[in-house]
Amino acid sequence: MEMAIAEIITIGNEVVIGRTINTNASHIAWRLTSIGFMVKRIIAIRDDEEDIKQTIVDSIRKNPNLIVTSGGLGPTYDDKTLESIGNALNLGLEINQEALAMIKEKYSKKGLPLTEEREKMAYLPHGAMPVRNDEGIAPGVTFEYKGIQFLCTPGVPREMENVLENFILTHLKVKPNVFYYEESFTIKGVGESSLASVIKEIVKKYNLYVKSHPKGRELLDPELEIQIAGSSPSRDKIVDLVKSCRKELEEKIKEKFGVSPQ
Amino acid sequence: MEMAIAEIITIGNEVVIGRTINTNASHIAWRLTSIGFMVKRIIAIRDDEEDIKQTIVDSIRKNPNLIVTSGGLGPTYDDKTLESIGNALNLGLEINQEALAMIKEKYSKKGLPLTEEREKMAYLPHGAMPVRNDEGIAPGVTFEYKGIQFLCTPGVPREMENVLENFILTHLKVKPNVFYYEESFTIKGVGESSLASVIKEIVKKYNLYVKSHPKGRELLDPELEIQIAGSSPSRDKIVDLVKSCRKELEEKIKEKFGVSPQ
Q1: Nearest 10 degrees: CA dihedral of A232, A238, A242, A244?
Q2: Which residues of A touch B219 (CB under 8 A)?
Q3: Chain A contacts in chain B segment 39-98 (CB below 8 A)
Q4: Residue pairs spanning A and B at CB distance below 8 A
């Protein structure tokens, strides 16, 4: 069984200077993970044409199944995502009548004319299709290049989320054939370095993702959240495996440290 | 004047699956920006040795002045940052006596012995130095490779922040010779697409970073935060320039839309 691999590229100076926390990346990553993708990388870059082009080319070289971008689809001068992608892949940009109709309809409902800036949002890479955006103006954009499916979403979170859902519902071609499942629990009074060998042992046995997230201070008031997660083509199989692993780990912790999970 | 360029690499499955929002990346990015660095890329990857090695090699090819990593310095089996970097750069890992002394002291104060997992945190790439961590056990790590300064910080946010500050204070060799300054203001009742041409014009004149951040909905209740930012070798010059740009932009907005900034 082959994993479906995804990469996420978020575009916008505000993220890269640290002004805005990249919640878009987390949302996209979690949503893709939940439907069975393995997200390999999340990259945040500036609204710079050269940076966008180079990042797209780098990402294609990694040959994922899906590349999702967010940001840079709007009407302003620094919204350069589609232009940069079009140039990077020698697709160019051309006006897309379906996208133009979507945009025109939204503005005309408010009695607003199509200006140059508004029309800009209808220029898509050659061969691309618009993806409905029910929360804003700029449509999402999807196309395929060298067998990699692309989705470009707007940067405004509610618009990104809406476009992503519409894409998954209607356009997504790579359907991962795995189910992802996770459970987690908390233990107090045991430090991460003490638990390390126990986790190492259980990972060897189960081949699951088992991760201790420190919530307290290692020496002062240790508190750990333990996450157990995995994917499998069979939903029952992965649920059973995670539950068995959790049970065994909880028993080992109780036995070794006298601490019960919460 | 040459910009000092930085790249940020955060390592940890929890971020890449979207479970944890990458606040570490934002903190590092903002702190580096505030002292004059231009952060070009932020990359989040999994706790996977091959991924870490490839990312480090990719990042070195971009030839930044500084690469900051976070995550993967702890005592657990999946903390692979230093081992992966050591292997990627053919530096290997060796026990560092200064790091070992730091770790030993912290555990011995609590009457805890040095186990294999705890000692692991003292193995640094050849030629590296530990950076004090006043908030946890694993020291930060700094070294130079092909003229690029590296800083590896732990993944726990308060430890990362502490190590970053200690690094800036004591170890940072690339001192950017620019000052960064920004101001922002809010306007209501003007959509992003309406303001786009005004911003385009002012950017041409001032060559500053001027960005409209949509806070409301473009058509329903438009509200924009306008950020004006820039860097210069002269603090006075950049403050004056940002203030002039802001004044002119506010006047133009008032003139064109009858809206006063807030």
Answers
A1: -130
A2: 106-107, 110, 137
A3: 39-46, 51, 55, 58, 74-78
A4: 175
DSSP string, A77-115: TT--HHHHHHHHTT--EEE-HHHHHHHHHHHHHTT----
Nearest by CB: B18 against A21, A33, A76: A33
Return residues 113-132 of A near B (CB < 8 Å).
115, 117-118
In this complex, the residue of B28, B77, B106 whose CB is nearest that of residue A199 is: B77
Report the Cα A129 to chain-centroid distance in Å: 20
Q: Phi and psi for B177 in degrees, rounded to 5?
A: -95, 40
A14: which chain B residues are within 8 Å (Cβ-Cβ)? 211, 213, 227
Residue B136 contacts A, CB cutoff 8 Å: yes
Domains and CATH numbers, chain B: 4-170 (3.40.980.10), 179-257 (3.30.1370)
* Tens-binned pLDDT, residue by residue, of chain B (262 aa): 467 999 999 999 999 999 899 999 999 998 899 888 999 999 999 999 999 999 999 999 999 999 999 999 988 888 999 999 999 999 999 999 999 999 999 999 888 888 888 999 999 999 999 999 999 999 999 999 999 999 999 999 999 999 999 999 899 998 888 888 989 999 998 888 889 999 989 988 998 888 888 886 767 778 898 989 888 889 999 999 999 999 999 999 999 998 887 7
Q: State how far the Cα of A13 lies from the Cα of B231, in Å rounded to an integer.
A: 14
Write the ipTM.
0.85
- Which residues in chain B are contacts of A3 at CB distance < 8 A? none
Identify the closest residue of chain A to B20 by CA–CA distance: A26
Q: What is the Cα–Cα distance from B218 to A245, expressed in whole angstroms?
A: 49
Cα dist from A103 to A99, A131, A137, whole Å:
6, 12, 6
